[in-house]
């Protein structure tokens, strides 16, 4: 009788142990499935931002699903991949209907100065001092003008842009000299500055601008076509009061700051 009781007790203990092990396995499987199905925390925020200089005053910025073109001009391909196109003003080396068409797709948004929107017959007008919130991107207009030259009058309300994408704030100056509005900018991670002179700041003036803007990185443009050369870009990089990178046309860099 005693032997029977011990046998029954042993059987019960075995069943309990087996049940616990089975429950543990199921719990572990469930946790594994949950971890696999759940997106990594902060994954999108941590995705890299790439910046490509397309030559002259044209840039391409990519982050997650956002593909942003600034003043596309003389593009070699027709990628039709833009989610957003920004155009600073209607001068031919900044506004090109043909190049906008090359990058645009069915869902592309155009944000530009009033004269560009009027010529293009579509798009959303942005004025200096105003901000537009788009999916994953925030764009604000910054005045771009020549205080003492006739090429870019302030009254035209032409644009530079601050672009907030991912964790970075990028400033694209447009065609401009060093202005009070530029001096007042704060919180810029990357500054894209014209250095060609004549119609915009020259290398020395653009380097002075970095003293006020205090970006972590500055990249020169408006050289290599029409006005300005590599010597201007290199002079800027030497004198800038921050880290500076001189890109070749078509060169891309990761914005890891």
Compute the CA-based radius of gyration.
28 Å
- The fraction of residues in strands falls at 25-35%
Total beta strand runs: 14
Helix content: 25-40%
CATH class: Alpha Beta
Strands, helices and their partners?
Elements lengths: L1 H36 L5 H4 L3 E6 L2 E6 L2 E5 L13 E4 L9 H7 L5 E4 L1 H7 L3 E2 L5 E4 L2 E7 L15 E7 L2 E5 L7 H4 L6 E5 L8 H11 L3 E5 L8 H10 L3 E2 L7 E3 L3
Parallel strand pairs: 3-4, 4-5, 5-6, 10-11, 11-12, 12-13
Antiparallel strand pairs: 1-2, 1-14, 2-3, 7-8, 8-9, 9-10
Helix pairs in contact: 6-7
Structural description of this entry:
- This protein is of the alpha/beta class.
- The protein has one domain (48-246): Metallo-beta-lactamase, Chain A.
- The chain is 31% helix and 25% strand.
- The chain has 7 helices and 14 strands.
- The chain has helices at residues 2-37, 43-46, 97-103, 114-120, 180-183, 203-213, 230-239, and strands at 50-55, 58-63, 66-70, 84-87, 109-112, 124-125, 131-134, 137-143, 159-165, 168-172, 190-194, 217-221, 243-244, 252-254.
- The strands form 2 sheets. Strands 6-5-4-3-2-1-14 form a 7-stranded mixed β-sheet.
- Strand 10, helix 5 (180-183) and strand 11 (190-194) form a beta-alpha-beta unit.
- Helix 6 packs parallel to helix 7.
- The longest helix is centred in the first third of the chain and has 36 residues, at 2-37.
- The termini are far apart.
């Amino acid at each position: 009788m005693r032997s029977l009781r011990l046998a029954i007790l042993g059987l019960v203990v075995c069943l309990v142990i087996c049940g616990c092990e089975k429950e543990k396995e199921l719990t572990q499987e469930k946790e594994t499935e949950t971890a696999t199905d759940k997106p990594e925390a902060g994954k999108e925020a941590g995705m890299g931002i790439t910046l490509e200089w397309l030559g002259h005053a044209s840039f391409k910025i990519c982050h997650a699903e956002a593909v942003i073109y600034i003043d596309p001009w003389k593009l070699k391909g027709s990628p039709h991949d833009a989610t957003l196109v920004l155009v600073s003003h209607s001068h031919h080396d900044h506004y090109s209907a043909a190049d906008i068409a090359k990058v645009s797709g069915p869902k592309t948004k155009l944000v530009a100065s009033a004269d560009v929107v009027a010529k293009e017959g579509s798009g959303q007008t942005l004025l200096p001092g105003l901000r537009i919130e788009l999916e994953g991107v925030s764009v604000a207009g910054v005045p771009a003008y020549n205080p003492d030259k006739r090429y870019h009058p302030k009254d035209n309300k032409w644009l530079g842009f601050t672009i907030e994408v991912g964790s970075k704030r990028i400033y694209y100056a447009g065609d401009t000299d060093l202005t009070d509005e530029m001096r007042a900018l704060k919180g810029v991670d990357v500054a894209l500055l014209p250095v060609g002179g004549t119609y915009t700041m020259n290398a020395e003036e653009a380097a002075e601008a970095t003293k006020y803007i205090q970006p972590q990185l500055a990249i020169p443009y408006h050289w290599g076509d029409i006005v300005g050369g590599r010597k201007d870009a290199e002079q800027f990089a030497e004198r800038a009061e921050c880290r500076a990178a001189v890109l070749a046309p078509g060169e891309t860099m990761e914005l890891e700051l």
